[in-house]
Design a protein that fits this description.
Four copies of one chain form a homotetramer.
Chain A lengths: L2 E2 L10 H10 L11 H13 L6 E5 L2 H12 L4 E6 L3 H4 L4 H4 L4 E4 L8 H9 L9 E8 L10 H13 L3 E5 L3 H5 L8 H7 L2 E5 L9 E5 L8 H7 L8 H11 L3 H22 L3 E2 L7 E2 L1 E4 H8 L2 E2 L1 E5 L4 E7 L6 H12 L3
Amino acid sequence: MKFSFKNDYSEGCHPRILEALVQTNLIPQNGYGDDEFCHSAERLIQEKIKSPQSKVFFVSGGTQANLIVISAFLRPHESVVAAETGHIFTNESGAIESTGHKVHGIITADGKITPDQIGHVLDVHQNKPHQVKQKLVYISNATEIGTVYTKEELRNLSDFCKENKLYLYMDGARLGNALMSENNDLTLEDIAKYTDAFYLGGTKNGALLGEAIIINNEKLQEEFGFHIKQKGAMLAKGRLLGIQFQELLKDDLYFDLGRHANLQAMKIKSAFQEIGCGFLSETFTNQIFPVLTQSQIAQLSEHFDFYVWKKIDEEKSAIRLITSWATTEEMTETFINSIKKLK
Amino acid sequence: MKFSFKNDYSEGCHPRILEALVQTNLIPQNGYGDDEFCHSAERLIQEKIKSPQSKVFFVSGGTQANLIVISAFLRPHESVVAAETGHIFTNESGAIESTGHKVHGIITADGKITPDQIGHVLDVHQNKPHQVKQKLVYISNATEIGTVYTKEELRNLSDFCKENKLYLYMDGARLGNALMSENNDLTLEDIAKYTDAFYLGGTKNGALLGEAIIINNEKLQEEFGFHIKQKGAMLAKGRLLGIQFQELLKDDLYFDLGRHANLQAMKIKSAFQEIGCGFLSETFTNQIFPVLTQSQIAQLSEHFDFYVWKKIDEEKSAIRLITSWATTEEMTETFINSIKKLK
Amino acid sequence: MKFSFKNDYSEGCHPRILEALVQTNLIPQNGYGDDEFCHSAERLIQEKIKSPQSKVFFVSGGTQANLIVISAFLRPHESVVAAETGHIFTNESGAIESTGHKVHGIITADGKITPDQIGHVLDVHQNKPHQVKQKLVYISNATEIGTVYTKEELRNLSDFCKENKLYLYMDGARLGNALMSENNDLTLEDIAKYTDAFYLGGTKNGALLGEAIIINNEKLQEEFGFHIKQKGAMLAKGRLLGIQFQELLKDDLYFDLGRHANLQAMKIKSAFQEIGCGFLSETFTNQIFPVLTQSQIAQLSEHFDFYVWKKIDEEKSAIRLITSWATTEEMTETFINSIKKLK
Amino acid sequence: MKFSFKNDYSEGCHPRILEALVQTNLIPQNGYGDDEFCHSAERLIQEKIKSPQSKVFFVSGGTQANLIVISAFLRPHESVVAAETGHIFTNESGAIESTGHKVHGIITADGKITPDQIGHVLDVHQNKPHQVKQKLVYISNATEIGTVYTKEELRNLSDFCKENKLYLYMDGARLGNALMSENNDLTLEDIAKYTDAFYLGGTKNGALLGEAIIINNEKLQEEFGFHIKQKGAMLAKGRLLGIQFQELLKDDLYFDLGRHANLQAMKIKSAFQEIGCGFLSETFTNQIFPVLTQSQIAQLSEHFDFYVWKKIDEEKSAIRLITSWATTEEMTETFINSIKKLK
């Protein structure tokens, strides 16, 4: 079997999570998220983000989190602003529009959007009520192409959104990787402070499944459970989600797993840099996009699985490599050895 | 801690499922349901239902299964016919209507609907296009109040639906209990033959989570994956669902768990019958609804958890007792002893 | 050609409306409802309802008014309570559900709903968030079967709704007939006071088309124009609606037309009473439902058009007769003569 | 009062239409579009487009036509491709998304889209089912910026759509202007042949209101009336739409009105060309976009109403001038005289 760098959800979950499931398995609990594990995980999150008034809701996946949050927050005539690389814009099969809301796409260089770009969207939608009303800004951190927001960038977005009565929502499918990135200066506390809501991703950071939706804006917390139920996202055994987040957050496991994944990616990045290889974008998380010749790609493909991401020219393409909590030092070393042998 | 007869999803999952998760944990797989476990579980189901052309899709929960199936099958102007006790009618927070479709409720004695009742709904909606067009019949088996359909009843419904160009869809959240009921004469093969689609419930029969949607009508299988994705129900680690159904179905575990739960309920039912107690409805699955005096209810409440279901008169109420794969013989015996002591 | 008593929208419009259209035809106006006629008609309505803070919005038809109001007022998890005879429940092809909201149907004797009946719906939906949340009560006045609400009934509904944080919305497709009914004691001022919103019907009371949505609850007025536009209901030439309501309301034309229609129906009702005929329900508006033998129905059918409404037994059926602003005295007299000749 | 060139819906309707309404006013008809005038207008359209199997449905406005057609044709996971200038993309307040469907925007030079551009959208959405499935191409003719499709362009689009199993739908809000444009080579027959559906606009070409939806693809005609009803677009007095289209189409009035509007715009265009003025885009319909200095704009604004459309630089802006059936020769001449006096 080839080692795989295709994505960060190829394996099951971190062994400690399985152990926690085994140990708690026969303890009866209330259903639908009203169990002691979910309550405990909520408290752990409130402490880590230093925001006791925030409310936490656990759901199974990222698309689910996004569509529930957005459809719960918006009235029918309100729309969303997102990067064109944003998961909701391009990779959720029209999930947001399916709940009735337009998503405006912004073309970006690095997957991150700026107040100026949002301002432009607002400017060209002044013909009310013939044009839809923008109400929520969706950002991803880390972005879908591996970049991260700085504290200043996030604060500026937050200020702009407040001035313009826009909600700011962060998709944190890979927030563990973002926060552990070497060029990150954000804390969970900052994120709770600057956003109306965000989600802390479990699926791509060691859980079997699960994302923790965290709503900081108290006005938006009201009756949120109805939306989870109505969209089919309320697990009868909500404990399954609570147990996992409790395990990930009761110490620093969540962050350790993000750091581990990033470290493997950075080692591989260095190896590519050493042979003079360029990259599609500069990333410091668990995704890298080296630009290789077709022959180099063919050599690496013999022993490893990964996606060819984007054709650059007749000669070269960028590949995408993703590492995870499950990427072993052995995998990383083996891959680096292969890089060194590339012609 | 009191023994609980509140529901069949209070514990985690059957130990064999946890073992299977542990053993497969680090085997890398494709994401989004395209893994070897999902494929294997689909084959097992196709064999058990003797319908190789059926397609199987795994999702997390029952409300999710129902809303995806119904919104994928119907055009915007089409509606659903269901019992007023039906889960979609009363307990899914408007999930079906949220996808745009009206649900017509039929008042029933026992949770089951008949061709005549559906025919009446059709008859009073002949003023086209001012009245919505009925297109899908939703039934639950076992029903939400513990009853089951006979083969003849299901065949009659199927014939009626075919004649009237209606789809027939069965919610099988408790299909394991239904099939193992002492007064059941249906097989999985029958159900695949008589319905356009149904789902085989995992959550309430020993899984951590998971329902297997089985689409028998080939015309309705087309592009179904899009709907799963769009509604936020496609797990990145779809393996989690595949592994569980593989484990439940590779031998008779799924059916053994249903039989075990039913057996506990029937023992308790007998004990109530022996003291001359009546029931709200006659059930042969894992739900029973004995009618007790307030004093009797108070006595049982001291040591056991259960729901008071329906007030009968000033004196009496019906309680609901649910057993599951996790109900031990000890729990059952202890409860029966308490019944015997009721005044 | 037979005289028709099938409905109150068989002809074009009252001649004064056509004259107003002719006279204003070439005066240029702003589009989309921002014209002097709509503004003037809004002021006339505000005066007549003695509620200057109410806002008025003109749309083309009743189903349109209902779906826009309801989808604008409700959040996704909220539902509507209505009579089973209510237009939105049975005759709008699932329009309300199409915007995502469940409609609970109440079985009534006379098309009118009471606080007790609504209270029962609330009582059986206490299992939050598994059951949908009721938020709006929909009533029709006159009802779809010709009855009207008294002031006391409406005040009681209003009080109940306020106590239970429900919006009260009245469908006034035939409000002109209701207000001119001999057993009416409501005024437009009362209706503005007791409802959060209502619409004043034009189509069935002499206009070519058009309903005036009147929102009394200021919180619900906000950004309402977006919803009109988004649902495709904002006419480029909104003037068409403004001119008609201006003409209907600048004097008492609107009420005269309602009174005229009612009067014709009451004359016909008396004629039936004189020959000892019974009625399906007791009505005092422009709809009557006499119960006739098949032979009597056949006799009347020779010279008049009307709907056979409901089979009573093998011998008899109720027919529905509707009069309108366009029903002439000649038509009424001719019909009465035929009644007198019935065996 | 200033002469207005702001839009083509400032006045009521062509006098012949009012006459037709007066003459037919008291003839009783069936409701909801089942009247002799709608039937007659449908036959006239079938003849003019030489497509007897096409079905015609009349609705009140363009946004309404677009949202009904698109939501009726598509399944939930299917999306629309349109120009970013397209009415549905930018000026319908999210109406299409409100019915659940994503609209992909294509940046164009002239408001027209090409097979290559659509092909690119398809190419970047191959990751099924994570990306939404494109199913309908929306074009406008004339476009929102006054340009028209040639026969070759439309045929190529049609061929491409057939090859890729896409529906082709044309928004004909200004189809009268398009067909009467001096550089048009399309006929109604061509349009019926090359599109699955289109609508023939009445509101902007002399009617009080009304658009004729024409469905050529027989598979898409089925049960279309339900969608009209459900979206609140079925007028009780459908006759109002039928009478107008009958009048516009029983001879060449519809085309005469389009030709008249175009002619006035072309005369004004020539006057601008004579003084050496440039244009934002080259148009041959009833919209022109001359680029003027701020001082020139100020001069014209003293006596005429129009929109300043787009700032070109500090010195200059493009204005938008729209003519219509109601633009008199006197208005045109007066405006041309003012152009000649511009410095």
